[in-house]
Specification:
single chain, Mitochondrial Import Receptor Subunit Tom20, Chain A, Methylamine Dehydrogenase, Chain H, 2 domains, four-stranded antiparallel beta sheet, 6 helices, 38% strand
Length: 417
């Protein structure tokens, strides 16, 4: 029996949902049986999103039916107001604040989400225990000694840079934290040793080092600097490699380098306004997105957890989501409260369904729906501009870094705590 176009579209949504949920073989079987292609350009969890919208609509219809009787005339204006979808409310609250002596520039979570590190213009690094930050918030609310609890949260403190720190990365399997700085150095710290506050290994570059990221295996380290050439270091020999296609590198300083979770690709972005997708095995540039943010400098680019999408932030006050396979823009995320040329740094939340943003002209944290691109909420907590935001890889929590010398850890508000 030949299926109608509408039914084929439904099966295409089903196949894509199966793929999004990790059932790739079943998704291929459904697509092949029905004679449809799995659309890579569809937003992630599109079928689930449509189902949730239908549920909301059904609930609202039921409420409207129950609230009116046959003998009463319904006011159309009131009915319209009731029928409008309520704005989702994500009650994130600041659970802990770590203080540095100068502006906090960056932060990173460990892959298991147990630790988070913050780094500052004062050249210090603080590693915080996530579980104890949650406990600290609970203890404070029940009247426990908050000062005593706060002292247990700071797991380690390191001092080994001479100038502001630009980026941090945890090793995926070993207790190692790597940092990079404007002092042209990359430092390796062993955070399992409580006695050491200095690095055990360092790499010297000639210019400001802006970004570092470990390969998912931990065997290699990507490095982006003020120079336009991206380097990759072997973590055993510390030998540096780069692409033989020198003409394919950026035309200006590299602001961010990030591995794909699948380990086969990495993405970079630059002050030249471009985003580049690279083959992580042979260091070959696969695609360049020119003028990704209208020609403005691109500050950060990173993958979604499944590697299918790239999230970028630029100096055009906008975050953008791209399809990694085609390089096409999926949606743009912004806010009317942001100026026209602000530096916006976004990140996916742990489930990729929402995007967080920090902007250098606002003290607020922004939250968007990654499917619709709609702004959901703004959170107040800092009293000066923000420089960075990082989400936990395992739970709905994040850390924001500000010009007020504070790193704030946020979690969902629990009415029981």
């Amino acid at each position: 029996m030949e299926l109608s176009i509408e039914r084929k579209q439904v099966y295409a949504l089903i196949a894509r949902q199966l793929q999004d949920d990790g059932m790739h073989a079943l998704a291929e079987r459904v697509a092949q049986e029905v004679g449809v292609e799995i659309d890579a350009l569809l937003p992630r969890d599109e079928l689930l999103s449509l189902y949730q919208q239908c549920l909301v609509g059904n609930r609202q219809s039921t409420l409207l039916a129950d609230s009116s009787s046959p003998d009463e005339a319904m006011d159309l204006d009131d009915a319209t107001k009731q029928a409008e979808s309520p704005k989702p409310k994500f009650a994130f609250v600041a659970r802990f604040t770590a203080a540095h002596k100068s502006a906090v520039r960056t932060a990173a979570f460990s892959p298991d989400g147990a630790l988070v590190a913050s780094a500052s213009d004062d050249a210090s690094i603080k590693i915080l225990d996530v579980d104890k930050m949650h406990q600290h918030s609970s203890a404070r609310n029940v009247g426990a000694n908050a000062e005593s609890e706060a002292s247990k949260v700071v797991y380690r403190t390191f001092f080994d840079h001479q100038l502001p720190i630009n980026d941090l990365a945890f090793h995926p399997t070993r207790p190692i934290l790597v940092s990079c700085s404007k002092d042209a150095s990359i430092k390796f710290f062993e955070h399992s040793r409580s006695s050491s506050r200095r690095s055990f290994r360092a790499i010297r570059e000639k210019v400001d080092v802006r970004s570092v990221d470990f390969h998912p295996s931990g065997d290699y380290l990507l490095v982006g600097t003020q120079d336009h050439i991206i380097r990759m270091f072997d973590c055993s020999s510390f030998q540096a490699f780069t692409s033989a296609e020198l003409s394919k590198h950026h035309d200006a300083g590299v602001n961010s380098v990030k591995w794909c979770p699948t380990a086969s690709l990495f993405v970079s972005c630059s002050s030249d306004g471009s985003i580049k997708l690279w083959d992580g095995v042979n260091f070959r540039c696969l695609r360049t997105i020119e003028q990704a943010h209208g020609g403005s400098s691109v500050q950060i680019s990173r993958f979604s957890s499944d590697g299918k999408f790239i999230l970028s932030g630029g100096e055009d006050s906008t975050a953008r989501i791209w399809d990694a396979s085609s390089g096409k823009e999926i949606c743009a995320l912004t806010s009317q409260s942001l100026g026209p040329s602000s530096r916006l740094k976004p990140c996916f939340m742990y489930d990729d369904r929402h995007v967080l943003g920090a902007c250098d002209n606002s003290p607020n944290v922004f939250l968007w729906d990654s499917v619709s691109g709609n702004l959901i909420e703004e959170y107040q907590g800092h009293n000066r501009s923000l420089y960075h935001i990082e989400a936990s890889p395992i739970e709905p929590s994040f850390i924001s870094c500000g010009d007020d010398n504070k790193a704030r850890f946020w979690g969902l508000d629990d009415p029981l705590n």
